[in-house]
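Section 3.1: Structural characterization of target chains.
Under the original work plan, the team committed to producing a structural model for every single-chain target entering the pipeline before any wet-lab resources were allocated. The record below documents one such target. The sequence was received from the expression subgroup and is listed exactly as submitted; it comprises 184 residues.
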Amino acid sequence: MSAEAVGMHMPAVVTLDDVAAMNAADPNGHRYETSPEGVLSVMPPPDSEHAMIASRLFAWLIMAGWPAEQVLQAAGVRISGPQGDGGRIPDLTVWRKPPPGGVWSAAGDVVLVIEIVSPGSEAMDSVTKVREYASAGIPQYWVVDRDGAQTVTLHRLAGQGGYEERARMPLAWLLQTSPADHLD
């Protein structure tokens, strides 16, 4: 289907319910997200390297004692802004308590968001989402690059409402530590 044909069927304003329906209807596993300003993003489905990184981090958190109900892959997070609500689907999230049922859960209960950079998502993960997650008050944001070392950059919410970089290390090094060493 052409972009022109899709555009004819798009609503004038895309709501979070619309985005949830797009995610559910896509047979190819693309992720649809929207910013609080209403900008729609479409990400390709994760590849096997992406899935392996997510699985390693998930297992690391579970083995350290985080309940499986609080460590979620591809869970929707509602990001509120002055212009409205957006919805992001991070690769991995850690929650203070299990989120309620539904597609979009409140960002206020998120302890940590982890994004694994995919080809084409570099700017989104290192600029746009940094700003959005910080303004939503999410205490920790980690970005895993797909370089040779799978470098993980750990960001912590700072006093001025933005993130400060706390550490940068290869994923293999991170996985040799305890999550408690990095989450406060």
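The chain has a mean pLDDT of 90.
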